[in-house]
Every structure is written in C-alpha cells, then in structure tokens.
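Why show two proteins at once? Because comparison is the fastest way to build intuition. When a single record is shown, students tend to memorize it. When two are placed side by side, the eye starts asking what differs. So, the first record is below.
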Amino acid sequence: MRGLAEYAMSGRLQAATVAVLFGLIPGFSMVSGAVVALVILRRGLQDGSQILLWALLPAGLQWLLGDPSSVFVLLGVVLAGVVLRNTQSWQFTSLLIALAGIALQSSLPLQQNYLAHTKEVMDTLVANGLQLPVEVDGKVVTATSDQMVAAMLQFYGGYQVVMMLGCMLLGRYWQALLYNPGGFREEFYNLRFDWRLMSALLIVVALGVYGVSPLNEWLMMLCVVPILNGLAVVHSVVAKRRMGMTMLVLAYLVLMIAAPAFVLLGFVDSLVDIRKRLDKPTN
C-alpha cells in the first residue's frame, strides 16, 4: 500500500492513473476515493479537484449504467477532505459524512433512474433463482423482488457513509505513512468525541430506536460517529495492553454481528473517557 501511495503522490499523472484504474475495477473504488482524499489532505482542494475530475470518469460511467453511488462518494470525500484538512477534526469530518449519508438516503425518492435500475437487477436475480427468506405476519416466506429492493434501499445511505469514511481513513493513513510516520496511529488512538455532541446524538438515536420517523430511517448513518469512537477505544486499549492482532480480529467480528455494542461503547467513552480510566495506575 505504501508503494501505491508513493506512486500516486509522485505526480499528477500518476495520481490520476491510480484514481481511474481503481475506479474501473469492481470492488476497488474506495482506493480511487482514497487517492482523491490523500491529494486534498496533502496538497489542497485545487490539486485534489484535478484528480477528482479523473476519478469521476469511471464513476460517471457507472452512473450512466444506472448507479450514481460512486459519484456521490467522491463528492462526499472532497467535502470531508477539505473539512479534515482545515479543522484537523475527525469529529467534524465524521459528522459531515453522517449528514451526507442522511441527505442521500432522503434523496432516494428523487433518484427514479436508480430505483428502476435496482428493481431491474433484482427482478433478473429472482428470475435466475435467487431466494431470500423474509418474515411476514409471523411466517417465514420467500421474499419477492419488491421486498428485496426495499430491504436493499434501507442500506443505501449507510453504504455511502461506510465508503466515504473508508476513503478518508485510508487517505489519512497514507498521508501519515508518507509524511508523518506513526501520526495516524496516534491520532486514531486519541480519537474521542465531545460529550455534548454525543449526548445530543444519543437522544436522537434513542428516538430513532423507538421508531420516531424519520430518525428510525437514519440510524445507520447516525451511528457511524459512536462506532468510530468505539473503534478508537478498542484499537487504543489493544495496543496499550499488547493484546495482539487476534483481539482486533475478534473485535471486528463483534462489530459485524453486534454493531450496537460498538455504538454503546462509543457513547460511554465520550461520557466517562474509558481510556483515561484504564491508564490510571492501580494501588
């Protein structure tokens, strides 16, 4: 990864090449966005905008094929990159990303072409034998294509948030790797969000959990902030206690199967500073 980052930062043509090539490879578009983030974080918006234009070529092609997600991710990365460069605050950056995800989730009724494309893809998959169970009135039945589409669209904004945040984290990691070795580790280990922000966010999330609309539709996006805080706690504690990579793997498995545990951890840490308490010497 270091070699790729060094190559991308060796010149504008090289950065554009990486952004375009990885944008064309299915499943690797996050690398394209990370290059845009890296250039903005290191050189500023003017240089980053030029790489963005190249990265938009494969993303725009995907939009023409019916999926605008990559374009929205890249635009979100530009905004987040500018905020992080100017404020050096992951709190503001992650909050912006969460709000961008909420805006995109709320914009779905306006994206009729994307909705039609998703419905067409799902109809094709069902016609080719795809079957997924769904519970209706207490009975488990095979989901229709419309039910599958509705389920997928619930994760639309959340997917955009994960991609934007992933691009920013990778870009920041590359920046530290090339120009400030160890800086990303220190920054992430010390990441902790303001208790006042988290208290307000906790109230909003609680209302969403209890079904208050439209907050219940925004839970995935709202929870990205406490989850990021929770991940910082885990990484910091594992490193300081020298628990090894196995504990981190287990932690990420927990994140995948029980994400609310990390949401709770993030909220608790913002209020009581778990890392500071664990660092206190015991008598």
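Second record. Ask yourself what differs from the first in the token line.
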Amino acid sequence: MPIPIYAMKLLLLLPLAAIVIYYDVRFRRIPNVVVVAALVAGLSINTSFMGFEGALSSLKGLGLAFLFAFSVAMLSVASAWAQGQWGGDSGAILIALGGTADIDAAIASVGALPAGSLSVGVAALALAAPTFFNTAFKLGLFVAIAGWRGALPGAMALAAIAAALLIPIAIATT
C-alpha cells in the first residue's frame, strides 16, 4: 500500500520543524539559513508531489506571507514615525486605524514597538477597539447572510466576544 502524500510531506518536514523549534526555544531566534531551507523544502516538496500546480500554490502562499510581513512592517514604521513626530501615544492611533483592516498586523506591530513605547492601557485600547469593530462587523455579516434564526448560536458567540471586548475599552478610557 503506497504512503499518502500528506504523510510523505509530514515525514520530510518533521526534521526541519524540529530544528526550527529547537532554535526558537533555545535562542529565541531562527537563523535565516533555516528559514530559507524551509522555504526551499516547501517549494520543492509541493512541486515534486503536485507539479506546476504545487509550485504555484507554494508561491501564492509565499506571496501572502510577504504581504502580511509588509503590512506589519509598514504599520510598525508608521507607528514609530508618528511617535517620533508627535510623541506620546500617537503611534497607537495608527495601530488602531491599521487594526480595523488587519488586526493581526496591528497585534504584531504593537509587539514590534520598543518596550515602554506605549502604556499598557493605550496598547490595550489600540488593539481592543479595532478588534471590537472587526467582531461587530462579522456579527452583522453573519446575521445578514444567515438570518436571525440560522445565525443565532454563532451570533450569540460573536456578541459575547464583542461585549467582552468592551471591558478593556471601558477600563482604558476611564
């Protein structure tokens, strides 16, 4: 009986994953050579198993990863620039605005700021506010698409998350 493709991919990538985990845990840094090896391994494995379609799929995924990294970098640069230009918590405003479009980039941008750049309350507000609006938007879409009856269980969960997000917003604004 032949080994399934996913099992083969897993067997080929497990040693690489072990190396990444080791470096991340031990040194809190993953060397560039390991990252490039992972990139080449993923592209090679997908190409060898799925041909041109696999290569194209890998390149699309790589493009999305670079797009995310670029959005984090731009949000971080803009935030640092705003803090240098106007001081105080002005960088948090840019992070909150960017978070309305891409909350993951906003979270990564807050994490990339130098320690002490933002107070804990301002950082919480910069992340909680766009997350609240993102959740409320998803709630509205969910109900609009599925209707109240069909959306009730999921809508209740999203409403509970949105309500919970109002707590750090209220604390940060008082």
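One difference worth noting in the second protein: Residues 32-86 form the longest helix (55 residues).
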